[in-house]
Structure formats: structure tokens, C-alpha cells
Amino acid sequence: MVDRIEGFLGVSSDVKKSKIPALQDRWQSITGLILALFMVCHMLFTGSILIGKDAYEGVVSFAEPFGIHQITNIVAFVILIIFMIHGFLAMRKFPSNYKAYLAFKAHKIRMKHCDTTLWWFQFWTGFLLFFFASAHIIAIVFGDKISADLSITRFADLHLFYFVLLIFVVTHASIGCYRLYVKWISIDGKEDERKAKRQTVKKIIFAVWGILFILSIIADIKWISL
After folding, report:
1. pLDDT in tens, 112-167
2. What 3-state DSSP class applies to 11?
3. Who is most buried in 23, 41, 131, 222, counting CB within 10 A?
4. What is the mean pLDDT of residues 5-32?
5. Residue ranges for the binding site?
6. Rounded to whole angstroms, how far apart are CA atoms 32 and 38?
7. Residues that bind heme b, according to the entry (predicted)?
8. What distance in Å separates the CA atoms of residue 176 and residue 182, rounded to the nearest whole number?
9. Domain ranges of the chain
10. 3.40.50.1980, 3.90.550.60, 1.20.1300.10, 3.40.1620.10: which CATH number matches 23-225?
11. How far is residue 91 CA from its own chain's centroid?
12. CB neighbours of residue 88 within 10 Å
């Protein structure tokens, strides 16, 4: 109970500044970074189909040595746990009720501030990913051995689901990576210089995720065509 009060008020029971909010922020950032890096690897993994089915099967064999497909199930389970922890920590910053939601929405409209609007998109995509990503990860946790033929069948049956999931993931992850940079990386220089550096980093981050998104779309089309 004390921990929850400290997390809400930001002070401990002896009226000292609590370390809990800072620790929660740190672990939210760490888990978010892990998930973002995993998604980059995952997108490159599924994108290997652009080289051919043999390339995809080769990546699967590398990830599952000696045909031990349970490795994929275990990795998916670990990612699911990290995903749940990240979501739980992120919920602290969600509007606590509908009135707070309307207040933030009005604030966003009045401010017309880019980073505030980005957080708005991050909030909604994070909320939707709780359902979409959870369903996908759980299917992998309890799924069979991965193969090109199995993946072809999944893409044929669920291509719209994967397309929507891809949009949510890329939007959420790209904004999240940018916010990680703003939160944790120190920028020296005058105000104008700091803004210019921040804009440059923002463009680079969104460009990288944009390229990954385009490659993933092309890979999805390849999967469906197979």
C-alpha cells in the first residue's frame, strides 16, 4: 500500500522524495527498448522471405538449432512477460478517467505541440497493441514449429490483422524510440542548437522505422503471393 502511495504522490511516508517513480520510468524505458530491438529483429526475420523461402528456413534453423522449436515458444513467452511489464508501467501515465482524457485532448488541440501529439498517438497505439500484440504473441507461445509453409498459411488467413498490427507497432515503436532519446540522452548547446539536434534525431529515427515499415509491407505482399 505504501509503495502505491509513493508511486502516486512521488514522496515516501517520511515526506522525502520517492525513488519509485524514477525506477518505474527507468524500467518502462528499458522494457520499451528491449521490445523495440526485438521488433527490429523480428521484422528483419520475417523480411528474409524477400530473398526466398530457403533464406527464411535458414533463419529459422539458426534460431532453432537442432530443430528445437520450443526455443521460439520460450522466447515468445519471455517477450510476452516483458510486454506485460512495459504495459503495466506505461498505464501509470494514461488518463485516469474520461474527464482526464477530455482534458488532455483539449490541451493537445490548444497546444498544437508536435511532441504532445506524438504522445497522443503513442497512447492510442499502445492501448490497441495490448489486444493485437498480446493475441499474436500468445499464438506464438502455444504455436507449432515455425516453417515457411506455416507462415504462408498464417499470412493468407490473417493478412489484414498483420497489416494493422504492423501499423500500430511501427507507430508506437518509432515514437517510443524518439521519446527515449529525449528523456535519457543529454543534449549540449544553446536552445536553438538543441532543438536542431532533436529534430535531426527525430527525422533519423522515423526514417529508419519508415524503411522497416516499407520493407515489411513488401515482405507481407511476398508472403501473400506465396
Report:
1. 777 778 888 898 999 999 999 999 999 889 887 887 787 888 888 888 999 999 99
2. strand
3. 222
4. 72
5. 42, 86, 136, 172
6. 10
7. 42, 86, 136, 172
8. 10
9. 23-225
10. 1.20.1300.10
11. 14
12. 13
